[in-house]
Amino acid sequence: MDMLRLLRAESLKTRRTPLLLTHLLVPIAISGLFLAYYSYSPWDFHGKVTAYFQGLACGLPMIIGLVCAMASDQEAKAGHYQSMLVSTKIKIKAYLSKLILLLMYSFGAIFMSVAIFSMGFRELLHEVDFDYLFYSVAACILFSSHIIFYILHLFVSFQFGKGASIGLGIVEALLVALLLTGLGDAIWPFLPYGWSGHFVSLWILTSAGTNLTLLEGSIQTSIIWCLAGSILAFALSCLWFWRWEGRAAE
């Protein structure tokens, strides 16, 4: 019951902030831009789909850095984080409620973007090679491979401030793009910045009927690292926040 109450309180706090609006407008803008470009682009079908999802994978770290900075700044301005630190009994629950709400917003934003793109791509541009199930799974892949980013950016935002979170997001976006090139072929399974772009690219190849037998070892390794890394990051973040006493507001 405490968690539900805290989640409701968190959602009420974000109603009059840019946080919710960002999760609503950015997906619409991204999908609209890609659909507008694809309406006259000479690219083939698979090139368009791959570029869209890889573009989302590269852009998400910047968006995550921004929204986590907003969430931290909101707490700083509301009373120097005291609403989250007022009681050790609910301290972790307060942190979890904020993380869960951000993940819920992220899930909704990613699915909204993919839904708008898939409907426009199929119904308006008549590109129907992949069904809606493909796009739904791709959205789940993007969301699950970015959970660790929310954990990292909440830590950075609370500990070092909003500027650090936004700056880190920009650097991460560049790393995601870099690991999608040949430079990341051998190391992407071990780095969070390589997971989303490669996972969704592999899903596209699988859906197109490409045989990925030679890549099974890398795929299994990357899934294990993704799950283990996310769980470890979550556990460490809870331990850190339990000991955290706040910082001076910016």
Walk me through the structure:
Helices cover 79% and strands 0% of the residues. With 250 residues, the protein is mainly alpha-helical. It is globular and about 55 Å long. The model has no long low-confidence stretch (mean pLDDT 88). The chain crosses the membrane at residues 20-40, 52-71, 99-120, 132-152, 164-183, 195-215, 222-242. It comes from Lysinibacillus capsici.
Blueprint of the fold:
Layout: H1 2-14, H2 18-38, H3 45-79, H4 82-85, H5 91-124, H6 132-145, H7 147-160, H8 162-179, H9 192-207, H10 216-243
Helix pairs in contact: 1-5, 2-3, 2-5, 3-7, 3-8, 3-9, 5-6, 6-9, 7-8, 7-10, 8-9
Features:
mainly alpha; 10 helices
Strand content: under 5%
Order of helices and strands: HHHHHHHHHH
Largest sheet: none
Number of helices: 10
- The total strand number stands at 0
What sort of overall outline do the alpha carbons produce when their principal axes are compared?
Answer: globular
Taking all Cα atoms into account, the compactness measure Rg is 19 Å
Q: Structural class of the helix and strand makeup? A: mainly alpha
For the record, give the distance between the C-alpha atoms at the N and C termini, rounded to a whole number. 33 Å
Q: Please state the average pLDDT score.
A: 88
The proportion of residues forming helix, as a percent range, comes to: over 70%
Weakly predicted, low-confidence segments: none
